[in-house]
Please model this.
Amino acid sequence: MAIRLLAIDLDGTLVNHQLEMDSRDVAAVKAAAAAGVTVVLATGRMFKSSLRYAEPLGLKGPIINYQGAVVREIASGEVWYRCELSVEMQQRVLAFAEPRDWHVNAYVNEVVYTARARPEADLYARVAMVPYEVVGPLSKWVRQDSTKMVLVDLDPQDVPARMAELGAWMGDVARVTRSLDWFVEVVNPQVSKAKALAMVADRLRIPQASVCAIGDNLNDEDMVTWAGFGVAMGNAPAALKQVAKYVTGSISEAGVSQVIERFVMGKEDTLVRA
Model:
């Protein structure tokens, strides 16, 4: 079945460690959109952080942000879907993180809030290219829903252990996942890129079989699994490659453009697994 909806992760898929997009990928995405394919960025990034990539791609339709917690239309700003962390969910995260001095960001209305300025806060600001506001201990500040929370560790080797510890503490109260090497992300347990993408497909009346999703990390696993044609980047972990129907080139090889040229524009049979 022809691909009509193409969901693409940003960091590690379209955006490299220099925070840039490959010109080959940009050209391929534009070609797909010009051919009538709906292209949706599906990212953990905030809306305003992802706009700097959506705009050069010429995208104006729906965009999935915050790991699927918010879906909105770029052109109008209309919010199609929102599912946030309650105050109780946030306080449970902070009850675990603050005594261990783990750095935590909270996100309210497209603003990043944190307890104090520190290297972890600066690392996040550099990668996301958004400023942060210092508000003191978050456990005393939190009074409203937050779109997500992010814990930042300067040593990526520590992140899997932190994920495991926090995941065990949160249980089914919230979903704990990983985006970039340094970031542990916490969202409402009802949130996922797959659910957001399914909602977009349903709203656009596009069948699941006509949806392609491309990702590179564990936070993309549900989306890649759900899509009719799920694709893992060559730089993805083994767990993601195992659930994908196809493994493309790495980000340095413009793996996204390879998928578009072969299966979207070239309309090669997406039943093949390679």
